[in-house]
Amino acid sequence: MFRTFLLPTARCLDADSERSYQDLFERLDTNKDGKVDVAELRAGLKAMGIFRHGAAQKIVSSGDKNKDGSLDFSEFSKYLKEHEKKLLLTFKSLDKNNDGRIDASEIQLSLAELGVHVSKDDAVKILQSMDIDGTVMVDWNEWREHFLFCPAHNLEDIIRYWKHSTVLDLGESLAIPDEFTEEEKSSGGWWKQLVAGSIAGAVSRTGTAPLDRIKVFMQVHATKSNKIDLVGGLRQMIMEGGLMSLWRGNGINVLKIAPETAIKFMTYEQYKKLLTTEGQKIETHCRFMAGSLAGATAQTAIYPMEVLKTRLTLRKTGQYSGIVDCAKKILKNEGIKAFYKGYIPNLLGIIPYAGIDLAVYESLKNTWLSYHKDSANPGVLVLLGCGTISSTCGQLASYPLALVRTRMQAQASLDASDQPSMNILLKKIVAKDGFFGLYRGILPNFMKVIPAVSISYVVYEYMKTGLGISK
């Protein structure tokens, strides 16, 4: 690999180091202009298997003394020398017995001193991600080679790198809200990430809104006797309300992102405090429990918006003039309870979805890592693939409950006698349409997963760059 071709030349801190830096610089300087810019460094890092977002920009920014946006050889070699000195101090702090090597017990002890408790297996995983000679110990050369082009240099930064590169299972998952360091909270980095995530979600939902609307349409109206396929359903909606009708309900779907994200984040912090003794590090199971409770709290708070979204998605031309008009008519004609129809199956559906999504994601990720022991970071494409497959599996398990929830939300305008409970509605659907009737509309739901994840990721990365977030 390019990585093993380049880095052996940068392994020594002796009289030859200047020459080895020169060789490395010349290989990175692909256009031979005597400078290495962010694009060239990023291409080199990718070829080495280093995928950390923002690493190239951070390295250039740190070493660029004359502020011309690139590194000449003097700036390049000076940055590497200073970075190696910092890495050496961190290495020595980990090497408790001063034998020139770091083993699993030293990893555990050093992390425990910072309040991060990991198992022996996790400590071995960390070592394997850096271990070149297969000894399950890491010497200075292996340590330097692994972190030479990673902006992290102190132990706190390196722990964050290990967490985000998915080596450790610290309860970090899509089901758990983002955790922010005290530095990120004080600097305002947390709100920038929340803003970036909200905007990415808004663009993603808008891009896949037609598929979401046809899904809801099929969930409510499709039966054995009234078969609605994907193309026919889209054509029917366009004929009824024009092309823009494909985006009905998208406005409130986008509006509910910000409050849901904010509530989840704020309540997550509070639940963590309630579940942990003051001064102690929060355990993995407590973090997961806090995340689940935060998700349920956010869902409870914004659920009326979910009902409004379903009603607006299914509305006929002229039925409601907008979100406020829809809310007024529901309140006037059906009462406050109508805003929580389908709440129980919605809450129950979170459990199998989150559990299976997390389990499949972790299994796929760990399988990849077991076959690629030389890398701590699976990379963007692998993680997106794992996320897409795990999300699909979670949807398969929870979809019947999602269908029942949507039916109950849509039927709230009927007389009380015609509003069946969750159990009765499930039985009715199975009796009338068979088992597969519980999966009406799942095709457009699956179709929107990959574009939704891809759009969200791309927009999120651009927003982070625009807001000056470097991770």
Automatic annotation (TrEMBL):
One of the entry's Gene Ontology molecular-function terms is: antiporter activity
* Reactions catalysed, as given in the entry: ADP(out) + phosphate(in) + H(+)(out) = ADP(in) + phosphate(out) + H(+)(in); dADP(in) + ADP(out) = dADP(out) + ADP(in); 3'-AMP(in) + ADP(out) + H(+)(out) = 3'-AMP(out) + ADP(in) + H(+)(in); 3'-AMP(out) + phosphate(in) = 3'-AMP(in) + phosphate(out)
Solcar repeat boundaries on the chain: 188-274, 282-367, 378-466
Cited SMART domains: EFh
The protein's matches in InterPro entries, at most eight in alphabetical order, are given as:
EF-hand-dom_pair, EF_Hand_1_Ca_BS, EF_hand_dom, GDC-like, MCP, MCP_dom_sf, MCP_transmembrane
Q: Which SUPFAM superfamilies match?
A: EF-hand, Mitochondrial carrier
Q: How does it sit in the membrane?
A: Multi-pass membrane protein
Subunit note: Monomer.
Q: Which protein is depicted?
A: EF-hand domain-containing protein
